[in-house]
Amino acid sequence: MSPDGRSPEPRVTDERTALRGIPIFAEIDDEQLDQLAGAADRQYIPANEWLFHMGEPSDAIYLIASGRFAAVGADGVVLREMATGDSIGELGVITGAARSAGIRALRDGVVWRIAADTFTELLAKAPQLQSAMFRAMAVTLRESRSANVSRGRRVVGVLSAGDAAAGPVVDAIAKRLGSYGQTAVVAPPVDATAAADHYGELVEAFSETLDRLERSNDWLLVVADRGSGDIWRRYVVAQSDRLVVIADQSHPPRALDPPVTQRPVHLVTCRVVPDPSWWDLLQPVSHHPADHDGVGALARRIAGRSMGLVLGGGGARGLAHYGVYEELTRAGVVIDRFGGTSAGALAAATFALGIDADDATAAAREFIAESKPLGDYTLPAIALTRGRRVDRLVEGFFGADTLIERLPKEFFSVSTDIVTGDQVIHRRGLLWIAVRASISIPGLMPPVQHRERLLVDGGLLNILPADVMCADPDGEVICVDLRRTYVPSKGFGPLPERLQPPAVVRRLITGTETALPPLQETLLRSVELAAPKGNLLELPRVTAIIEPDVSAIGPLDFKNIDAALEAGRIATRAALEARPELVR
């Protein structure tokens, strides 16, 4: 049934041809195909509706005529995706077992239902169908063991919001996508929409056409420009794997019809500074201005070529990140997404400002290496330092009102809520607060009180948040890991050996003659050790791991910036030589 309460009339003349196009029926004879076509019950399944649930009886198999479906296991985990030509549920029918997973429509779709007894009877008569079925099940088994369960987000719906004109942006996206593969722009079909007084009729009239276009192109841009009818807008939202919303006003309408948040949404703004209320309405995964750089970044996301750079914590050793970024940009590696923890969050936020790599390094030299950020020591009632100098430096550099949402590049940082023990991922809000929270080493700097949370260094839970970056399926990820080596300082902080006090003085002050690392360094190293260790190579989409040799740099040795920078440069050059495909 359609959402209008009307059943779209099946087009019987197309049934045999369409069923013959299903791979498992390609080799059966005409008589068997006629029997199958007579028994097949054509059903329309709206997007987000369930075809069946896990544990239900295996009373039929289903053949996908159009649309896309997901097999959903326990706890809502998507096991795999299926599209036109795939069969569903045949193993349960053959074995008699209950449904091992639920099936949910990701888009509006049409399926043929064949009852279990009809299918088993046909299977007994057609050995070639048995062979095809076993091949299909082997493919299913192989896909179920793959980390990549998605068929890709190839159908992109483009919606104008308000009076925004979609055409110029669509043309720009299509041109950039053309560098990566075949792209088609799909406008409302006059013949289909004119005859479609009901939504279900539009699905019947156009879904197979859309399916054919998808098979012959790498990406489809399905456009609902201003003035498009409500039925077409609804169809575009339901049939798309992701949505691009184009806006030309600072504040959004109270609502978009139809709602769009059940798909990944990308916000594109034309000549306006978007208000944060756009994020409340759309919950977009990314924002792009409608200029050359913004459209390029969006096209790379759609094509799955959006490179992410995730940076680990490490105190003063985090200055190596700036050397890494110098070499990556010099080699022509385009980074669209940045994320990090602690010192990595500070560097990632700097790069996300969109400034030149050399300017980023100059800023690190001025605001970190030469400013003594941890110099305002106090009685350790809350922390060893007041944290006010760090506050002034971070807020002064990033700006008191700079929002993460409005950055030229995408950014996130990670902090730890010491009240709840939760990892907090900062993707919205004031940039300087997100950075300040992530670098708040417990005991060394005061926590950051932010709304109901009490935030400290993200390294307690996730010192290199590659898993956060890798959860985004739109591109590969480069990781910079500073945990490779640790050589503790001896004596009183960064004092050179010739100025270290004799053992008798050290004993009077510390209670031991042994030269041990200073308290600040011990606190920072404790944060590093507290974070869980994981194998980065096991994460999907990690394409390179850069490990600068920062063993000669103490965690608080901010003055040693030149050695840290050079360590980052050397490690990056080695990584680029090993992976030349990173430059593309």
List keywords for this structure.
8-stranded mixed beta sheet, Cytosolic phospholipase A2 catalytic domain, 20 helices, 22 strands, Jelly Rolls, Rossmann fold, 3 domains, disordered N terminus, alpha/beta, 584 residues, single chain
Description:
The protein is α/β, with parallel strands linked by helices and 584 residues long. The protein folds into 3 domains: 16-141, Jelly Rolls (Sandwich); 155-303, P-loop containing nucleotide triphosphate hydrolases (Rossmann fold); 308-582, Cytosolic phospholipase A2 catalytic domain (3-Layer(aba) Sandwich). It is 36% helix and 19% strand. The protein contains 20 helices and 22 strands. The model is unreliable at 1-13, 145-149 and 375-384 (pLDDT under 50). A motif (GXGXXG) lies at residues 313-318. A motif (DGA/G) lies at residues 457-459. Residues 24-140 form the Cyclic nucleotide-binding domain. A motif (GXSXG) lies at residues 340-344.
Element layout with pairings:
Blueprint (H helix, E strand, L loop, with lengths): L11 H9 L9 H10 L1 E5 L4 E3 L7 E7 L1 E5 L5 E6 L3 E2 L1 H6 L6 E4 L3 E7 H10 L1 H18 L10 E7 L5 H11 L5 E4 L3 H6 L3 H18 L2 E6 L5 H10 L2 E6 L17 E5 L7 H6 L3 E4 L2 H11 L5 E4 L8 H12 L5 E5 L1 H10 L4 H13 L18 H11 L11 E8 L5 E4 L4 H8 L9 E3 L2 E5 L8 H5 L6 E4 L22 H8 L8 H12 L11 E5 L14 H18 L6
Helix pairs in contact: 1-2, 6-11, 12-14, 12-20, 13-16, 15-16
